[in-house]
Specification:
single chain, alpha/beta, Rossmann fold, 7 helices
């Protein structure tokens, strides 16, 4: 396993799904984990308690990243806990909306970009003073950023924006030794991909995957832990597809 011993990690959207799995994996790899959540306080506390029960260090932080001042508030609370040192940022929090072009509202569009793009952009901005030289920033992109899957044009646009930010942030922060990457999952069995829990949805997903099973959050968490660790010290500006060979 890639080691994150002695490091402090912030994982946003860590109360469930991929974020939860990433928080648990990073803690198992030795990191102190700050477990961010938006509304699911009880689920986040369960993640914290599981990490502590295994001998790890964790603390929950509840902040609504949909609010314009959410990233600044989260950064302030991270500094209150971690001081002036943050080694790993997993900007995972996100929302999805399945809708055709005709059915997408301005409110839906704005909400998607507020949480999926604006929040991670300004969270990095606010955390720059405490991100250590040699630290790792990891965004969550998606298969839909480079392949037409389902009816998700607005959501897909937010993930295309994330892929662009990865390249620009990596170039800008590279001189400080800060690595910036993303993972791009395909269909993962989470609340966000509820259609994969139906027989028709599973058949649809398996039809465009090389590996014939539906991914679990742990499958993505392993890639996140790799990118967070020194094992990926020469990887930056990349979006790592973790999709079971989807849309090849």
């Amino acid at each position: 396993m890639a080691s994150c011993n002695g490091k402090t990690a912030l994982v946003t959207g860590a109360s469930r799904g991929i974020g939860r799995a990433a928080a648990l994996a990073l803690a198992e790899a030795g990191a102190q984990v700050l477990v961010h959540y938006g509304r699911n306080a009880e689920e986040a506390e369960a993640v914290v308690e599981r990490i502590r029960a295994a001998g790890g260090r964790a603390q929950g932080i509840g902040v609504d990243l949909a609010l314009p001042d959410g990233p600044a508030e989260l950064a302030r609370r991270v500094r209150a806990i971690a001081g002036e040192r943050l080694d790993i940022l997993v900007a995972n929090a996100g929302i999805s909306k399945s809708a055709s072009i005709e059915d997408t509202t301005i409110a839906d569009f704005d909400a998607l970009f507020a949480v999926n793009v604006r929040a991670p952009f300004f969270l990095v901005q606010q955390l720059l003073p405490i991100l250590q030289d040699g630290s790792s920033v990891i965004f969550t992109s998606s298969l839909v950023a480079h392949a037409a899957v389902g009816s998700l044009p607005a959501y897909a646009a937010t993930k295309g924006a994330i892929d662009t930010l990865v390249r620009h942030f990596a170039a800008i922060l590279g001189p400080r030794g800060i690595r910036v990457n993303a993972v791009a999952p395909g269909v993962v069995e989470t609340d966000m991909s509820s259609f994969a829990k139906t027989e028709a949805g599973r058949d649809y997903a398996l039809g465009f995957q090389a590996l014939k099973r539906i991914a679990q959050p742990d499958d993505v968490a392993g890639a996140i832990t790799f990118l967070a660790s020194d094992a990926a010290r020469w990887v930056s500006g990349d979006t790592l597809r973790v999709d079971g060979g989807s849309k090849l």
